[in-house]
Amino acid sequence: MNSELNAVVEYMERERGVDRETIIEAIESALQNAANKSIADAEDLRVSINRETLDIKAFATKKVVIAVNDRYSEVSLAEARRTDPNAQLDEMIEIESTPRNFGRIAAQTAKQTILQKIRQAEKSRIFEDYKNRTGEIVTGTVRRFERSTVIVELDHGAEGVMPSKERVPTEEYEVGERIRAYIVTIKERESGPEILLSRAHPDFVRRLFEMEVSEIADGTMEIRGIAREPGYRSKVAVISHDERVDPVGACVGIRGMRVKNIVRELNGEKIDIVRWSEDIKTLVTNALAPAKLQHVEADEPTHTVTVTVDADQLSLAIGKRGQNARLTSKLIGWRVDIQKDEEAMNFEERVAAAVSGLVAVEGIGEEWAEKLVYAGFLTIEGIMAADLSDLEEIEDVTPEQAQALWSAAEKAYTAKHGEIKE
């Protein structure tokens, strides 16, 4: 038995997880290339490895002749019949042509090719193992960093990449650390399969809930929407298809254990579980809880929800740095405008609110918004109700500027009300 080759095959099979036949076929192909170089004039060379002994032999196809003129392509009848007693003149037969130094030359030439083919076989196997696993959560070990990209070692020798945009900004990773991540995509590249991982993807939270909440996994409940700011807060809207099952309670679990397990995996990221409703007003009310809303108005054409709250509820509804309102908007797919009850506002707050409303109108800007408000034009409706001459009377406003302001208000009015004021 070829003990040296056997040791290589067993190592590759055991440590790399590559099929034995795949390894032997790769070595045969590499050795054949090497043999073609070392026996340059031989035609139709074939290299064969005995599957049991792993002995290597090279065969050349030659023509049977009476007198040999070209030893590389011809063989005498007498020599041919030592290989095949039934050999006939002009017949093409295979003759063993393994040169004395074939093992050394072939091994040197074939080494890199063998490794390349084995690596390619490993890449193909990894792609086959993972190609249908998009959307799964996998566990791996942080192996190294390439700038801000984290390279994670997965099962069976696969590597996943987690670029900076897929990392959670509040998390730090260390080499050797075990982490879980969501498979976003798997692409077959020339350099090997690219497994894109994420811990920041909203569906990472979705899959965690599906794994933790059996009612979601079996279809009794459904996640209708997820809005996430990775590392800080997520809102998850759920609905139950069984009236006996409370969707929020099922997600929270007994003594909050289910949601606690998810929060622990997300390193303390806050989770708001929202009861889904097809009614947009009810959904907004649920999503902004625990803030108490005074009034909710939905504008279907502009997909805008205007929420009015008492002064003491404003900061709670908006959330820290506007996070609660922003996530609610992402969750429902509508613009959410949260306002304090005008009756509870003092004069300065009303002025600030009017200015803020006009600043949002494209073509007006902060400077003109303040001038318009202090001149008595508090809304786009107020501007549309005025004549151009009224706008021209504002200090430092030229006729051209008055026309531009009126046009900007007209455009905003049309977008909001779906009609043009005559």
Distinctive features:
single chain, 422 residues, alpha/beta, N Utilization Substance Protein A, Chain:P, domain 4, OB fold (Dihydrolipoamide Acetyltransferase, E2P), DNA polymerase, domain 1, five-stranded mixed barrel, four-stranded mixed sheet, 24% strand
CATH architecture descriptor of the domain at 3-128: 2-Layer Sandwich
- CATH class placement of the domain at 3-128: Alpha Beta
> Unreliable stretches, pLDDT < 50, 5 or more residues?
none
Output the radius of gyration. 37 Å
End-to-end gap: 98 Å
* CATH fold field value of the domain at 3-128: N Utilization Substance Protein A, Chain:P, domain 4
Share of β-strand residues:
15-25%
Determine the structural class based on helices, strands and strand pairing. alpha/beta
Total of helices: 16
Counting DSSP E segments of at least 2 residues, the number of strands comes to: 15
Residues in helix, %: 40-55%
Query: In what order do the strands lie side by side in the largest sheet?
Result: 5-6-7-9-8
Instruction: Give average pLDDT, whole number.
Output: 84
Description:
It is a single chain. The protein is an alpha/beta fold and 422 residues long. Helix content is 41%, strand content 24%. β13 and β14 form a beta hairpin. The N and C termini lie far apart (98 Å).
Question: Can you summarize this structure?
Answer:
By secondary structure, the chain is of the alpha/beta class.
Topology:
Layout: H1 3-15, H2 20-38, E1 46-49, E2 56-65, E3 74-76, H3 77-83, E4 92-96, H4 102-130, E5 137-146, E6 149-153, E7 159-162, E8 178-189, E9 192-198, H5 202-212, H6 214-217, E10 221-229, E11 233-240, H7 247-252, H8 257-265, E12 270-275, H9 280-288, E13 293-299, E14 304-309, H10 314-318, H11 323-332, E15 335-340, H12 347-359, H13 365-374, H14 380-384, H15 388-392, H16 399-417
Parallel strand pairs: 2-3, 7-9, 11-12, 14-15
Antiparallel strand pairs: 1-2, 2-4, 5-6, 5-8, 6-7, 8-9, 10-11, 13-14
Helix pairs in contact: 2-4, 5-8, 9-11, 12-13
